Amino acid sequence: MKKNMRRMIADIEREVEYTSHLIGKHVLDPRVMKAMEEVPREVFVPGSMMHFAFENGPLPIGYGQTISQPYIVALMSDLLQTQDDHVVLEIGTGSGYQTAILSRLVRQVYSIEVVRELGETSAGRLKDLGYTNVECRIGNGYAGWPEHAPYNGIIVTAAATHIPQSLIDQLVTGGHLVIPVGEPYEAQELIVVTRGEGDHIDVREILGVAFVPMQEEVDDAD
Ligand code: SAH
Question: Is 221 domain-assigned?
Fold first, then answer.
């Protein structure tokens, strides 16, 4: 492992330990940490940000959006409780970094991005890098992607004001939705919703986070 990658992994491990009272564990799934080591974060950040690629913080990717902090990417991937044969949906492709991590953890990733330029750039980048088990689409992901449902897990990488029922409906029984919920630019909570039998859902608040807002009205892009 290169030195800067080793530092990023150590920073994530330290923050996991530091937040263990909130997240209920001292280490994340080793499969997730292996994926974090394997995916080169530097190719997902703008050239001008390359020097900061291995810092444990978010970075701007243009269009008012950000690539999430490595610790948060690792934590959300862990909370999804993925298995090799899973199919997952991501809302908010952004840079494609989280998408690439997920592609190492499951059989198939579907990802939706509402900003066309970001979605097209990331889809091309993922393809060039050989992440073949990923399908990207431009559009508003608020209503999910019903054609490929149900999903073993759904991850939303932008903050919603409430938990979208449309996404819960696209989970398998026992599947998890990992989503930041709260008012834009105010305190948000990272939440895990687990779909139970029938209409039953289990909602677990994990910790406070800061995400760019999710576009909730489905009115364009498609
Ligand atoms: N996982 C990404 C996070 C990017 S920021 C990364 O680490 O790079 C969140 C992304 O969600 C932005 O690119 C934003 O355009 C997108 N987004 C916001 N609302 C959306 C919606 N309703 N459907 C699809 N994408 C959305």
Answer: no
